[in-house]
């Protein structure tokens, strides 16, 4: 389902997400907490034995640990095995016989690099690796719970993630779009499906649709929904189990119950619904202009309506309605 959120809530969410001030735990607890410590670039291990010479810095760390444990690296894979490994790893499919023959016959020093570049440029790369992100955000194409109704427009968020991987979108932009695309990038309507992140988890249809908020079960369903938004955001982007503090101060992470409800309040103005959008910014701009014109015409029509014949009123209403039929995103 598409997530509609108040602008202030979305901006506060970003502020809290990327600021350590989100937590009210004692300063001493936060100072040395591993997930709040800036990443440091370690020194590359020096390998004294020339037989352990590493082809790249990552291998240097692996080979240093192997040497520490008195172990030796495995033998290099043959070219056939190497191609199968990298192809399965990057696109999830085996190489074709033609691709295998071409690689075996290519004796250029950058033959392997060319294979990697080709696989990274393949649309299949995004399709394979996007599923890991979709697993992280517990993406589903149905609501779950008792009735498990299908989400007919959930595909738009899935396709957004695939496109982000294939286009090598910067991670910071990837995060911002999923939390507040409509607020931060109002002139980029094509990223509206990114908001599907907030609504990717299960949704209790009975508790939200069939039971009013005045009923205990209806109220619980809405709290559970906010809890899912908090949990999905913080566990995905900060690796924190903040939702454990819903009932008590966290037993391990420096999260108090006060912190938890402060975060849940951020999402109190957010709800789930289908939202229309245009994938082409030019079309979106033109639609805004036409909608403005339609609104002006509707106001003029209201003033002149008593003087119009019935057929003219009917045709004008049909024309205005036709302007409002863009794509649907379910996030």
The total strand number stands at: 3
> Helical proportion?
40-55%
Low-confidence runs of at least 5 consecutive residues: 3-9, 20-25
Question: SSE string, helix = H, strand = E?
Answer: EHHHHHHHHHHHHEHHE
Shape: extended
Given the helix and strand composition, which structural class is it?
Answer: mainly alpha
* Strand line-up of the largest beta sheet: 1-2-3
Sheet with the most strands, sense and barrel status = 3 strands, antiparallel
Describe what this molecule looks like in 3D:
The protein is mainly alpha-helical and 331 residues long. Helix content is 53%, strand content 5%. The chain has 14 helices and 3 strands. It has a 3-stranded antiparallel beta sheet. Helix 4 packs parallel to helix 6, helix 7 packs across helix 8 and helix 11 crosses helix 12. The longest helix has 24 residues. It is extended and about 95 Å long. The N terminus is likely disordered.
Ordered list of secondary-structure elements with their pairings:
Elements: E1 2-5, H1 7-17, H2 27-31, H3 57-68, H4 79-91, H5 97-105, H6 111-120, H7 123-136, H8 155-166, H9 171-184, H10 205-210, H11 216-238, H12 257-266, E2 270-277, H13 281-304, H14 310-322, E3 327-330
Antiparallel strand pairs: 1-2, 2-3
Helix pairs in contact: 1-9, 4-6, 7-8, 11-12
